[in-house]
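Task: complex structure prediction.
Instruction: return structure tokens for all chains below.
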Amino acid sequence: MTISRVRVRPVRAALWLVALAGGVVAAFRYVFGLGAVTNLSDRFPWGLWIGFDVMSGVALAAGGFTIAATVHVFKLHRYRALLHPAILTGFLGYLLVVGALLIDLGRPWNLWNILRPLFLFNSHSVMFEVAWCVILYTTVLALEFGQVVLKRFRLWTLLRITQLAIPPLVVAGVLLSTLHQSSLGALFLIVPGKLYPLWFTPLLPVLFFISAVAVGLAMVTVEATLSARAFHHELDIPLFTDLGRAAAVVLSLYLGVKVIDLAVRGAWPLAITGSVESVMFLIELAAGVVLPLVLLVTPAARSRRGLAVASWLIVGGVVLNRVNVAVTGMLRGSGATYVPAVGEIVITAGVVSAGVLAYLWIAEHLPVFEHEPARPDHAPAGAVAIPAS
Amino acid sequence: MSLTRREFLHLAAASGLGVTVLGASRPALASPKAGMGVLIDVARCVGCRACEGACKAYHGFPEGESSDLGPRAWTYVKFAALREPKSHLNLGDDGASQRSFKVQCMHCAEPACASACPVAALRKTPAGPVTYDAGRCLGCRYCMVACPFQVPRFEWGKALPEIRKCNMCAERQAAGKVPACVEACPMEALQFGPRDSLLAEAARRIAGDRSRYVPAIYGAEEAGGTSILYVSDVPFEELGFPVVVREPLPAYTWRALGKIPWLVVALGATLTAVEVVVRRRMEMQREDGERS
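Output:
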């Protein structure tokens, strides 16, 4: 077990500084109210935290369920080395989303009411469904990640027993992810009069789900290239080329559905009006979907740089899409103006920094990157989670 | 925005208005539309703000004239300048340049806010009012996002904030009294009663003075119908009333949510089947490999 220290002390110090600044602003928010640190208003009650921290955060954490399904359901064991980093990213991502939500919620002490469905059941609320799925899926990720912890402490018997539970756990995780990734889009189905028609469509849940799968795969590549640099790993380029090809297939599907949907709704003319919405929409589509698609189907997908650029573009495109749906597209219909306040930006940056710090710490102290652990001889050859090769 | 908004008030085109509104009410929606409501007559309103004052006095809010809804202004009187002067029913030519009307929660028959709320803190009561229970509320503000009339307000400056909005004086209603605002109106511009009778009264007023009233009842079908209804002698569009879809908004999200049980069953079964089949195949391949 080789644990390499990251030799990036200045970066780490900066991350701590930003995270602490976020903590200070968060404390301020709890004492003086949301109005003291945000530019949110009665006409625009959701802003950067929902658009970026929550909606983009959940999407970017989708690598956890896509890779888990690839390895444990479809048993494509060559992707096994990506599993634990992806689950770690997913797990941390959801913890950060919950953390950001606790800052955004006006009455977080009532959050436990969500857990009392028998008394407070509202099956018609998309928010109710999203909340339950996020809680359950974060638990699933914790259990999946628990495998890494068991491995770290060499609890082989416990590991062997719990491995039997992994396939059903992964199936549950894929189900929960499918539900809430799409439901984050469904949240906005109730605002047909507020969300700009470039984004409002009955297919919002479908588009959110497809783009989540694409960005999940892209995030795995982004994260691998970053940690390869930080931890001085070799990058298995052909593996990521294939992953990129898979992302390209998903992205093509997304583009196809989007193009047809806009055509059927007659919304395409709105994309070329030169309005703020049209410009943001075109950037989202061109830089976040078309450009990475081109990169991934050309020889660029065989280079480390080409893969990294394409993956970053997909990540940026999906983040922009979520922010456009939650913020850009809602401005005109709400008759509101909104630019995130400094306090909102500091907290968002703090949340991201805390996530990176947590990732670095865990990657250094737990066997996240071990491709195959040195197992004692009595490890079961037929155990489900052990690759055949 | 005009591109997204559908033609405003198709009712305006209908000639036999009373028949149109009352005869076309969909039976499927009849039950949630029961309960009490308020009919607001824009033509009668003189802008005295007595309703606003009574609301604030009754709920213990600070006095004064509000220019928007707020946590401590559950209703206010809005003034809209007219494009062309039109003699006022009560004020004559003195009031020809503008109209005034009361703004508050519309108390939808099928409220978007209540459907959005994950913990049912907002509820449509059978009596008519849409009420709020702070003890349940998480402060997620999805109700504010969902409301097509942009009514719910949030206490942004408080460490322990609540969602605040008009509750149609539900507690007064329970005690057999009319809402404070209705009681205060000196011009009979506000009328409290069962929604069905208010709709009939609205149609009667329009039919009784076709040269004055526009042939439309705002709230008859907006967002699937609201407990608050408006009639006016100036088109609602000119007064700046929000243009709202006619279908109840909860139906929009339910079309997606209602598919979830099927999705869970189909996807769960498929994934499990794939997992089992692939695992069996791999085990068989391994056995074959060991045999040969």
